[in-house]
């Protein structure tokens, strides 16, 4: 089927490394070439399954991918501190392969750590005027179109 082949060309497998609440994209050596027939929903991870927090992050990453279009890829996912002790929040950087390379920041919310479904709680386009400011307590703020959002990762290591 031609539409299935086209969708396969738009999607590519992305590999992630999990480090204390962050999922980091590991680029292929031939970043320009797309893998044939692979799907961004078939994410592979160097993390061993069945290791508690890592398995939870793996499930969360798959749930976040399910919210995206086929031409979108997650470039970075960072777990954020949440006011609610049960809610789990991530900030993800998403890029698209549509007509031109565009990026957006999405806030993804899980009702609990064992949840397999998430909702999009924040949509923040990355415009040419977007600025990022680091604050002294490990958090950062993003200002775009005169709108400022503050974020705080679960640990300093997740930012680096």
TrEMBL record:
Region feature Disordered, mapped onto this chain: 35-55
Domain Slingshot N-terminal: start-end pairs: 60-160
PANTHER family xref list: PROTEIN PHOSPHATASE SLINGSHOT HOMOLOG 3, SLINGSHOT PROTEIN PHOSPHATASE HOMOLOG
One Pfam family here: PH_SSH1-like_1st
Recorded superkingdom: Eukaryota
Transmembrane segment boundaries: none
Organism: Characodon lateralis
Descriptive protein name: Slingshot N-terminal domain-containing protein
């Amino acid at each position: 089927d031609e539409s299935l082949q086209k969708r396969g060309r738009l999607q590519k497998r992305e590999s992630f490394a999990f480090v204390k609440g962050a999922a980091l994209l590991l680029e292929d050596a031939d970043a320009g070439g797309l893998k044939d027939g692979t799907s961004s929903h078939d994410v592979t991870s160097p993390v061993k399954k069945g290791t508690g927090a890592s398995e939870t992050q793996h499930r969360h990453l798959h749930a976040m991918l399910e919210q995206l279009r086929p031409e979108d890829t997650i470039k970075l996912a960072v777990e954020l501190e949440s006011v609610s002790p049960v809610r789990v929040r991530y900030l993800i950087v998403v890029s698209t392969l549509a007509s031109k390379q565009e990026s957006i920041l999405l806030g993804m919310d899980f009702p609990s750590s064992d949840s397999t479904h998430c909702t999009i709680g924040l949509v923040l386009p990355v415009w040419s005027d977007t600025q990022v400011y680091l604050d002294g307590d490990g958090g950062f703020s993003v200002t775009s179109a005169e709108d400022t959002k503050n974020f705080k990762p679960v640990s300093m290591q997740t930012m680096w």
